[in-house]
């Protein structure tokens, strides 16, 4: 999971998908935000999917991606455990560390 997020483009992609309208996006929705080719963006999305951070569904020509909530909660728990100064007030209802 952390290896997949180690690339700045993938970290930004995860953020864009998570914050996109309805919580899902296809390459066509987010490719304008990057100076990367569509195949490169698709590759990065595949790495995130294989790491369990995203899930997807094909709809016609496009593949739509969304964040797997359980993966974010697991990631947040690991990060919170690694920070001895964090307390329960730093974790939102979604399981994400807020501080």
UniProtKB/TrEMBL annotation:
InterPro entries on file: ArsR-like_HTH, ArsR_HTH, HTH_ArsR_DNA-bd_dom, HTH_MetalResp_TranReg, WH-like_DNA-bd_sf, WH_DNA-bd_sf
Organism: Rhodococcoides kroppenstedtii
Keyword DNA-binding among record annotations: yes
Gene3D superfamilies: Winged helix-like DNA-binding domain superfamily/Winged helix DNA-binding domain
Keywords in alphabetical order: DNA-binding, Transcription, Transcription regulation
Family matches, as NCBIfam families: HTH_metalloreg (NF033788)
Family annotation (PROSITE patterns): HTH_ARSR_1 (PS00846), HTH_ARSR_2 (PS50987)
One GO MF term: DNA binding
HTH arsR-type domain: residues covered: 1-87
Transmembrane region(s): none
Alphabetical list of CDD domains matching this protein: HTH_ARSR
UniProt name for this protein: ArsR family transcriptional regulator
Pfam families, alphabetized: HTH_5
